[in-house]
Amino acid sequence: KAGVTQTPRYLIKTRGQQVTLSCSPISGHRSVSWYQQTPGQGLQFLFEYFSETQRNKGNFPGRFSGRQFSNSRSEMNVSTLELGDSALYLCASSSTGTGVTEAFFGQGTRLTVV
Amino acid sequence: AQSVTQPDIHITVSEGASLELRCNYSYGATPYLFWYVQSPGQGLQLLLKYFSGDTLVQGIKGFEAEFKRSQSSFNLRKPSVHWSDAAEYFCAVVLTGTASKLTFGTGTRLQVTL
Q1: How far apart are CA A105 and CA B11, in angstroms?
Q2: Rounded to 5 degrees, what are φ and ψ at B62?
Q3: Do A109 and A35 form a contact (C-beta atoms < 8 A)?
Q4: Considering chain A, what percentage of its residues have pLDDT values greater than 70?
């Protein structure tokens, strides 16, 4: 069974640009969550999608958005990039419907904003 | 405030020595508890989880963790550390009703000396 796939692995963008990151969950998993990891703030929850609907949202500005497609693949978009958006962005998938199950993480996308 | 605390930022142990990484949580109810490991530049790998039942849980790679309700702790242990265990370890919780939303501790970096 293939794991969680995130593309691209590395990105370099200029301040003010926008970026889209992609995540393909484990087959059969309908929940996709996104996390931002930085040395200063650690691992922070961005949002979670389940069956194409945002189910949970963290405390990030509206520049951070996401969506989920009918095949459970998810994209995350960051508009008007700032230097502080440089981070490792991790996607996790889980099979949970109403209960709690473990989340499986992808390798991450390393975003550098210059 | 609700939080997950990993008191040790950095731990160094000799190969073959035992290991204990500490994790404390501050929540009104018992959360769902997890330990993840992250190698440099990689995503997170689930080591073990506690949902309910037996308070001593076994995980992958020879790790185990013990849930102690009275101490609000979920410490990770390994009897004999291998050089390949050098990585960063994260304790995480999911609160009831928040589905897949993980709240992480700040992590403990493990260094293994030969």
Answers
A1: 25
A2: 80, 10
A3: no
A4: 96
Mean pLDDT of A55-69: 95
Tens digits of residue pLDDT in B92-102: 998 766 667 89
Select from B34, B101, B104 the Cβ nearest to the Cβ of A102.
B34
Lowest mean pLDDT across A85-89, B69-73, B87-91: B69-73
Q: Which residues of B touch A98 (CB under 8 A)?
A: 99
- CA A44 vs. chain centroid, Å, equals 11
In Å, how far is A70's CA from the nearest CA of chain B? Answer: 19
Q: How many CB atoms lie within 10 A of CB B4?
A: 21
User: Least CA distance to B41: which residue of chain A?
Assistant: A107
Measured in whole angstroms, the distance separating CA A36 from the mean position of its chain's CA atoms is: 8
Q: Give percent of chain A with pLDDT exceeding 90.
A: 86
Report the SS3 class of residue B34. strand
Give dist(CA B111, CA A7) in Å, integer.
Answer: 30
Taking the C-alpha atoms of residue A7 and residue A31, their distance in angstroms, rounded to an integer, is: 18
